[in-house]
Amino acid sequence: MVVPKNHVSDLHQISDETISEMFSTVKLSMKALDSVMKPHGYNVGVNLGKAAGAGIDDHLHIHVVPRWNGDTNFMPALGDVKIISQDLMQTKKKSC
User: Fold this and answer.
1) What is the CATH number of the domain that holds 23?
2) Where in the sequence is the domain holding 21, given as residue range(s)?
3) How many domains does the chain have?
């Protein structure tokens, strides 16, 4: 998950520089995940507002979800369904 430093709920509240920095971080995250987890693809998305499924509707963030052929679909992944049963610290240790 990529989160801006300032609490904002709308893309119109973020500068172009911040948006650029956020997507550079998305790319860096994908590069790290490619190296460690070797996914077959990704879902990258932003849920804006409660109606769009934003769990924290007053704080914009970008989801970076690694995907593999045959895994579950994207929406349950954002509904707190565990796709990969691996502790995040274990994943982090793999990259070191």
Assistant:
1) 3.30.428.10
2) 11-88
3) 1
- Does a structural domain hold residue 1? no
Give whole-number Cα distances, 52 to 14, 29, 74, 78, in Å. 19, 24, 14, 12
Q: Establish whether 12 is a catalytic residue.
A: no
Out of 12, 40, 61, 63, pick the active-site residue. 61
d(CA 20, CA 38): 25
Q: Which residue has the higher pLDDT, 68 or 83?
A: 68
pLDDT level of residue 10 (50, 70, 90 thresholds)? confident
Q: Quick one: average pLDDT of 55-60?
A: 75
